[in-house]
Design goal:
The complex is a heterodimer of chains A (105) and B (156). With 105 residues, chain A is mainly β. Chain A has no helices and seven strands. Chain B has four helices and nine strands. Classes of the chains: A mainly beta (105), B alpha+beta (156). Strand 4 of chain A pairs antiparallel with strand 6 of chain B, so a sheet runs across the interface.
Chain lengths: 105, 156
């Protein structure tokens, strides 16, 4: 994938990092039907999002198909320094994955 | 000063726990994926989902959790939800939509230094209670809010 599927905005204020990320993903539940063919669209959703900062996992989210399409996630953690990098990665139910690194401002 | 002390305490306490988890091989990404709680996410009722995901289904209502969600969601496919927990040592936050086919929407396992704050967007099939479940110190605390949905977001 040439372009990362994850967009990250990370800001540090007084040692507290606030992370916002937007992932482009269809997030199909597996219950929706294709209107023309009447067939079910197979489930395709992110199962897990992991965010790492300086080798530690700060967030490990387990998702189901009930998270909206092109999911948005925001959270915050303390003990962060501006200029440091965070790593965000996801894995979906078909085994696909992607990850990105972002610098905190 | 109080704030610093609290952060320090929380940090050291939880860092220990994380260390143990890593040494037990629990936090390596692959192992975590294998542990994706299929049963929890496929459970058809709230209690079973909680049992499978957080290990308990007995919950206590708490006013220390703030659940921000719209009163009326015009589009059930995108319902913004923000949860803020001020309970000390919040370990995990789950979102449950009682009337969805599979109530458990997501579980956020928070790291040592992570604040009790999560914001995301969820799908809702119809008008239902949205419940935030916070796990702290082995206990579960909840807070709920009814969200009216005018157009469902599950199924077509």
């Amino acid at each position: 994938m040439a372009k990362s599927s994850i967009k990250v905005r990370a800001k540090v204020k007084e040692g507290e990092a606030k992370i916002k990320c937007l992932i482009s993903h269809p997030m199909e539940t597996g219950l929706r039907k294709n209107k023309k063919s009447g067939k079910l669209i197979p489930a395709h959703f992110i199962q897990e999002v992991v965010c790492e900062y300086s080798g530690k996992t700060v967030m490990n989210a387990q998702w189901s198909g009930t998270i909206s399409k092109n999911p948005f996630l925001s959270f915050s953690f303390s003990g962060a320094k501006a200029g440091d990098k965070i790593k965000i990665s996801w894995v979906d139910n078909t085994g696909k994955s992607d990850s990105t690194e972002a610098k905190m401002k | 000063m109080n704030q610093n002390r609290r952060v320090l305490l929380k940090g050291t306490f939880a860092a220990g726990a994380t260390g143990i988890a890593i040494s037990a091989g629990l936090l390596t990404p692959k192992a975590v994926l294998a542990a994706w709680p299929k049963a929890a996410f496929e459970a058809k009722d709230t209690n079973a989902a909680l049992q499978a995901s957080l290990g308990s289904s007995s919950t206590t209502e708490s006013s220390d959790i703030k659940l921000k969600a719209p009163d009326i969601a015009e589009n059930g496919a995108v319902v913004p939800v923000t949860i803020t927990s001020s309970i000390a040592n919040t370990e995990a936050i789950s979102i449950i939509v009682a009337k969805n086919g599979t109530p458990l929407t997501a579980t956020f396992n928070l790291g040592a230094t992570t604040k009790g704050f999560v914001s995301t967007r969820i799908k809702m099939g119809k008008t239902s209670d949205v419940t935030a479940v916070v796990k702290a110190g082995g206990k579960l605390y909840t807070t709920s809010k009814n969200v009216k949905v005018t157009i469902g977001g599950c199924g077509g």
